[in-house]
Amino acid sequence: HHGIRQVLRDLGIQDINAAYSTGLQWGGEANEQVSSISSPTDGKLIGKVRMATAHDYEQVVLQAQEAFKSWRLVPAPKRGEIVRQIGNKLRQYKEPLGKLVSYEMGKILQEGLGEVQEMIDICDFAVGLSRQLHGLTMHSERPAHRMYEQYHPLGVVGIISAFNFPVAVWSWNAMLAAVCGDVCIWKPSEKTPLVAVAVQHIIKDVLQENELPEGIFNLVVGDAEIGGLMAADERVPLVSATGSTRMGKKVGAVVGARLGKALLELGGNNAIVLTANADLDIAIRAVLFGAVGTAGQRCTTTRRLIIHDSIYDDVKQRLLAAYPKLPVGHPLQEGNLVGPLIDQDAVRGFTDALGRVQQEGGKLLTGGEVLSGTGYETGTYVQPALVEAENHYHTVQEETFAPILYLIRYSGDVQNAIELQNGVRQGLSSSIFSLNMRETEAFLAATGSDCGIANVNIGTSGAEIGGAFGGEKETGGGRESGSDAWKIYMRRQTNTINYSTQLPLAQGIKFDI
Ligand code: UN1
């Protein structure tokens, strides 16, 4: 179907049913627990994967630790050279890999290709970074002393990734970790392991071509138990986890209890503020992409639209005109903009939330149907919903990973809109549409948006890789990808060197015997 067998062959996956579990072995082993992966787009079986056991996990950690011993000695720009080759291989495989992302996860092909592009871009970023892992030098308070800091590789980095960005978010972590001299163990979402297997194949080729151990990049396809082992494992100094706040609280607590480092990228409840001074022509386009793109399954999806009284009816009419026309259908078919939800559970989450919000007083304006009939046999396609609601409703306060957009009215000045925007437990992404600089600057000020990402005249989703990505409050506080996010993947060391014949003590302390 849609040539997916050919796609798998193009990716070098000859016999997916022979399956994979770890970075150690490619197929062959007797399978105890096998997971069948079918596409949310048409319900067809794509392949089966052997789930890793605790024993497999143990082997992978040992392999990773062994690889770290040599990888950390490779000069950082030489590590960058390996990442450059990975980026080139990804360019070569962009088309089939993007297709597989689209088919296994359900996002439209444009977004599948965009996801692979994000991987390529972070490779380029990491290559440049490999020559810029620098610390600062400080002036010592003591004569003939020098003080500086340096960054050393950290060790084994655990990466837990989510189904919605099944490969890109891993690459943000893995490519930075790699140039930093770390090795990583990747536990992809159980819902999207095949694309992870495909990526591991690509990586494996690069490592083999360079006679490097495969233990630099490891893959463990497993369930929450494997994630739990990783979180508790003192041999894994950093665990980077993307997913729900519920998952992050568990992982964060376990990592924290052993004083490990956790990089958490969790739920969002992202709002766009439309003030009376918004350019509605661009704003509506941003709202549509943010709210229904990826079928509402991005952590940066626009979930709340905070609209000024004076333009409320206009905005509502424009959205009401657009929503019923949204092309919902097979994501590999050109022209469709909204694919399926990942599975039946997600569909239940969507319909439950719509039921609950209406009980709380919300008004469903359009959409909300689970689609049926030709092309929709899987029961995973839904019509994106528009709901008039109030910010304090329990349902509005939660992140429902589905295309529901809550329209929320505000009056008075922009500070009232900011209060509503900040009035949720999550703090990932936010944006304001206004041509009035007093309003936009208020939104960006210390008393403005409390999110990790705050935009002006662009939407909440689709961040570039060059910036630090992540959010505050229940979003978990982690920052990944660009800017100086690399620092968490290294250990910082402060060095003070005395080249005098004396031993002066800091703080002027006299300690002479
Ligand atoms: C996610 O949904 O976990 O900003 C990541 C965006 C994408 C990344 C989303 N670049 O929407």
Automatic annotation (TrEMBL):
Keyword Cell membrane carried by entry: no
EC number: 1.2.1.3
Domain Aldehyde dehydrogenase: 33-494
Active site residues according to the UniProt entry: 265
Keyword match Oxidoreductase: yes
Pfam families with a match to the protein in the record: Aldedh
Enzyme class: oxidoreductase
InterPro entries xrefs: Ald_DH/histidinol_DH (IPR016161), Ald_DH_C (IPR016163), Ald_DH_CS_GLU (IPR029510), Ald_DH_N (IPR016162), Aldehyde_DH_dom (IPR015590), ALDH7A1-like (IPR044638)
Taxonomy, superkingdom: Bacteria
Molecular function GO terms recorded: aldehyde dehydrogenase (NAD+) activity
Record's keyword terms, sorted: NAD, Oxidoreductase
Listed Gene3D superfamilies: Aldehyde Dehydrogenase, Chain A, domain 1, Aldehyde Dehydrogenase, Chain A, domain 2
UniProt cross-references to PROSITE patterns, sorted A to Z: ALDEHYDE_DEHYDR_GLU
Family according to the record: Belongs to the aldehyde dehydrogenase family.
Quaternary structure and interacting proteins, as annotated: Homotetramer.
Protein name as catalogued: aldehyde dehydrogenase (NAD(+))
